[in-house]
Specification:
Blueprint lengths: L2 E8 L1 H5 L3 H10 L3 E8 L3 H7 L9 H8 L4 E9 L1 H9 L12 H5 L12 E3 L3 H11 L2
Antiparallel strand pairs: 1-3, 1-4, 2-3
Bound molecules: inosine-5'-diphosphate and magnesium ion.
Length: 138
């Protein structure tokens, strides 16, 4: 297995709740390397490109709105199977039912905004990782 890179985002809820350090801690504790990191107040254009697969879905507009509501922290993480590994650390999409031990399961819940505020994003494939890293670390 080759060393991979993935894009992790600490979403605006994670930044507002001062969980950047806790999330980075979990990534580092797992043994992944933080290869690059920046804080970004994302433009609509960047978010539209990032979430292009979700365009037209009912949650798309509110999601883009939420993601532009404050700064996010973009992280280039690297390591053996880090794409799958970070998705596992993050937990399933819905924070209320995400497994304990995961970022979303331990730190997130339903804030009345159904699923949307789930603290982190992680690329879901090598293709997405390449595409997303190019967007956020242009
Ligand atoms: P993922 O982040 O676990 O890969 P995706 O299905 O790719 O989940 O959805 C992207 C993001 O869109 C989610 O992380 C969440 O913030 C938001 N989202 C997904 N499904 C819903 C929904 O049904 N309602 C509101 N927001 C949603
Ligand atoms: Mg996704």
């Amino acid at each position: 297995m080759a060393v991979e890179e993935t894009l992790i985002l600490v979403k605006p809820d994670g930044v507002k709740r001062n969980l950047v350090g806790e999330i980075l801690r979990r990534v580092e504790a797992k043994g992944y390397e933080i290869a690059d990191l920046r804080m970004v107040h994302a433009s609509r254009a960047l978010l539209a490109a990032h979430y292009e697969e979700h365009e037209g879905k009912p949650f798309y507009e509110p999601l883009v709105e939420f993601m532009s509501s404050g700064p996010v922290v973009a992280i280039r993480a690297s390591g053996e199977r880090v794409i799958e590994g970070f998705r596992s650390l993050a937990g399933s999409t819905e924070p209320t039912s995400a497994a304990p031990g995961t970022i979303r399961g331990d730190l997130g819940r339903d804030w009345g905004t159904s699923v949307q505020q789930n603290l982190v994003h992680g690329s879901d494939s090598t293709l997405s990782a390449e595409r997303e890293l190019a967007l956020w670390f242009a």
